[in-house]
Amino acid sequence: MKITEKCAVSIHYRLSDAKGQLVESSFEGEPMIYLHGAENMIPGLEAALEGKAQGDILDVTVDAEQGYGPYHDGLRQEVPLSAFGDIEDIVPGMRFIAETEMGQRPVQVTEVKDDVVVVDGNHPLAGQSLVFNVEVLEVRAATEEEIAHGHIHAHGGGCGGHGHSHEGGCCGGDHDHGHEGGCCSDDETKEAKEGCDGNGGCGCRH
Questions:
Q1: What is the phi-psi region of residue 113: left when phi exceeds 0, alpha when psi lies from -120 to 50, beta otherwise?
Q2: Quick one: signal sequence residues (predicted)?
Q3: What pTM was computed for the model?
């Protein structure tokens, strides 16, 4: 069976950046399972998988436009430390949900100064070409329930899902409910306080 719209697809993948540095791999863990054609995957990789079948192995280079998009300087901003309320020990790498002019977006702390915290709402891989090595493990027809829900009802790796794992995966989904992982506390369910909304704000696609 070939990969087409409304297929449930299971893959293993390695993701490297343009310099060849390994970003993440599913080969040592659970494969990623996604619903093809439901925007569970970054466009460039999903397009490359179209028509492939179980057992196929492919190397795919995805440019930024078909990956996590260009890097937007406006999504990087300085936020007063006071905006984080009583949250202590803010360090680079922490992720928060910030209220921005573009709505709620996940942001990541990139720098902490004396009384200012620099946060970045770009996906960590925004503006970069991505190199994938992919092995197709299984292809099947998705169930009616899976199609209705827009995702596969199975546990899998974080590569590209619609955000149920979430920014953890680097292949995918546009809707990070937790990463991506795949952007004010280190708990993304907590909203930023005043001052985190900034100007311009902060994908498993983003």
A1: beta
A2: none
A3: 0.68
Report the relative pairing of strands 130-141 and 7-17 from DSSP bridges: antiparallel
Mean pLDDT of the chain: 77
Backbone angles phi, psi at 46, to 5 degrees: -60, -40
From residue 31, give the alpha-carbon distance in Å to each of 5, 121, 139, 163.
20, 28, 13, 16
Domain that holds residue 27: 7-69+126-149
Angstrom distances, CA of residue 196 to CA of 12, 48, 108, 186, 192: 38, 38, 12, 14, 6
Q: How far apart (Å, rounded) are the C-alpha atoms in residues 164 and 182? A: 10
Q: Which amino acid belongs to residue 37?
A: G
CA distance 26 to 12: 5
Q: What is the pLDDT of residue 183?
A: 24
- For residue range 32-77, what is the model confidence (pLDDT) as tens digits? 999 999 998 999 999 999 999 999 999 999 999 999 999 999 888 8
Instruction: Output the CA–CA distances (angstroms, integers) from residue 129 to 14, 15, 148, in the order listed.
Output: 14, 11, 32
pLDDT for 100 equals 66
Give domain status of residue 188, yes or no: no
First to last CA, the chain: 29
Domain membership of residue 144 (yes or no) is: yes
How many domains, in total, are found in the chain? 1
Residue 135 belongs to domain with CATH number: 3.10.50.40
